[in-house]
Design brief:
This protein is 34% helix and 32% strand. The protein has 142 residues and is an alpha+beta fold. The chain has a single domain, classed as Aminopeptidase, CATH 3.40.630.30. The chain is globular, with a radius of gyration of 15 Å.
């Protein structure tokens, strides 16, 4: 049975294993890992999302899920748990880079909107010709 839970130290090895399935040379920052929200199937981690904190803005750094997470309901539930956690940690906006139309549609379903990347003052080398999407958490929790 799939369930949503916040990351604990006990999850570290399994989270790292999931990350390394998609990025072999990954050396994740433990602070970013500590902000993970997970989808667990019994004892296996089948989905995760986390963000890197920059003052009052969070940048989505990991969003990984297995095909066994059928339908969008659990993904949406995972993201809403992330929103609550981020907001509690004084994050007012979440942003993400969008590499493809499929990912753009998914993040739109999560409530993100397209923004002009120059309005976020991102460094040129961090843009990599990708779209940027934003979610304003203050409006979500008013």
């Amino acid at each position: 049975m799939l369930k949503i839970k916040k990351y604990t130290q006990n999850d570290e090895a399994k989270v790292l294993k999931l990350i390394r399935k998609v990025q072999l040379d990954a050396k994740p920052d433990k602070e970013i890992l500590s902000r993970c929200v997970l989808i667990k199937d019994d004892d296996d981690i089948v989905g995760m999302v986390s963000y890197e904190s920059h003052d009052d803005m969070g940048i989505i750094r990991y969003f990984i899920y297995n095909a066994c997470v059928a339908g969008a309901d659990r993904l949406v539930e995972m993201f809403f748990e992330l929103y609550k956690t981020a907001y509690t940690n004084n994050i007012k906006r979440l942003i993400t880079k969008i590499p493809s139309l499929e990912v753009e549609k998914l993040f739109a379903m999560f409530g993100f909107i397209n923004v002009a990347d120059d309005s976020l003052n991102l460094k040129a080398d961090s843009k990599q010709n990708m779209k940027i999407m934003l979610l304003n958490l203050e409006k979500s929790f008013e």
